[in-house]
Amino acid sequence: MYTRKDGFAKADFDPKTVVTIPNIVTLTRLIILPFILVSLSRNQNIQAFILILLAGFTDVLDGFLAKILHQATTFGKVLDPVVDKLFMMSILVYLYINREFPFWAFYCILALEIFIISGGFWMMRRHHKIPTSNICGKLAVTFLSVSMYLYIIDIDSINAFYINGLNFKVIIVFISIIFLILATINYGILSKKEILKNNGKKDD
Question: Which residue range forms the structural domain that includes residue 192?
Answer without folding.
Answer: 7-203
